[in-house]
Amino acid sequence: MAKLTKKQKEAASKIEKNKHYTLKDAAALIKVVSSAKFDESVDIAVRLGVDPRKANQMVRGVVTLPHGTGKDVRVLALVTPDKEEEAKAAGADHVGLDEYLQKIKDGWTDIDVIITMPAVMGKLGPLGRILGPRGLMPNPKTGTVTMDVAKAVQEVKAGKIDFKVDKTGIVHAGIGKVSFDADKIYDNAHEIIQTLIKLKPTAAKGTYIKSIHLSSTMSPAIALDPKAV
């Protein structure tokens, strides 16, 4: 196990062992324990009482964070020529179709989100093995396959993110930066937690929200009280 640096030990000492913090206290504490020289990302990890192997217990959704992610999201709009100007005006970083499909085939994936149209999805099928593992495959359920390309681009740029429970039953999401005010970190975390609660599968039995942890890129995780969120 790697040794903790002096800064990491100091940060860990500020978090009480075995204590479960309220979301409000954790949002303030994450700013105190973050000590890197760069603007660290703030992440949330929510362990759910579901079995992701069962289709009726899969948890997946989208949420628009009130204060955005603090990250400049790079958007590729794969659209037909008649939609190109619309996508560019909405703020898409890359706009086109066949030339970008070829670039992806050649290994280019320097983007965060792909937005496309239903008519184009057929062309994306063969690229599934490249896009799928990177979480880049557009999906109608997350609003990234739509005829309203402009709206989809604007929402993603404004802080709309999609999430999916992993095979261990945990939802991970980036919800901001440590430079955010504590209130903004709280608002963003609260929004995604409440969204998860609404998405509880009817087939899930027992405790649904098992644990919640807040952390930054370099900081120890802060345990939250799931009942106090």
Largest sheet: 4 strands, antiparallel
Kindly report the name of the CATH homologous superfamily of the largest domain. Answer: Ribosomal protein L1/L10, rRNA-binding domain
Please state roughly what percent of the residues sit in beta strands, choosing from under 5%, 5-15%, 15-25%, 25-35%, 35-45% or over 45%: 15-25%
- Count the DSSP helices: 8
Helix content, binned percent: 25-40%
Helix and strand sequence: HHEEEHEHEHHHEEHEE
Shape: globular
Question: In the CATH scheme, what's the topology name of the largest domain?
Answer: Ribulose 1,5 Bisphosphate Carboxylase/Oxygenase
CATH architecture of the largest domain: 2-Layer Sandwich
Number of strands: 9
Secondary-structure-based class equals: alpha/beta
Query: How many individual domains?
Result: 2
The CATH first-level class of the largest domain comes to Alpha Beta
Uncertain residue segments: none
How are the strands of the largest sheet arranged? 7-1-8-9
Mean pLDDT across all amino acids: 92
Distance between the termini: 33 Å
Keywords: Repressor, Ribonucleoprotein, Ribosomal protein, RNA-binding, rRNA-binding, Translation regulation, tRNA-binding
Protein name: Large ribosomal subunit protein uL1
Family: Belongs to the universal ribosomal protein uL1 family.
Function: Protein L1 is also a translational repressor protein, it controls the translation of the L11 operon by binding to its mRNA.
List the helices and strands and how they pair.
Blueprint: H1 6-13, H2 23-33, E1 41-48, E2 60-64, E3 75-78, H3 81-90, E4 94-96, H4 98-105, E5 113-116, H5 121-124, H6 128-131, H7 149-158, E6 160-164, E7 170-177, H8 182-198, E8 209-216, E9 222-224
Parallel strand pairs: 3-4, 3-5
Antiparallel strand pairs: 1-7, 1-8, 2-6, 8-9
Helix pairs in contact: 2-8, 3-7
Subunit structure: Part of the 50S ribosomal subunit.
Keywords: Repressor, Ribonucleoprotein, Ribosomal protein, RNA-binding, rRNA-binding, Translation regulation, tRNA-binding
Function: Protein L1 is also a translational repressor protein, it controls the translation of the L11 operon by binding to its mRNA.
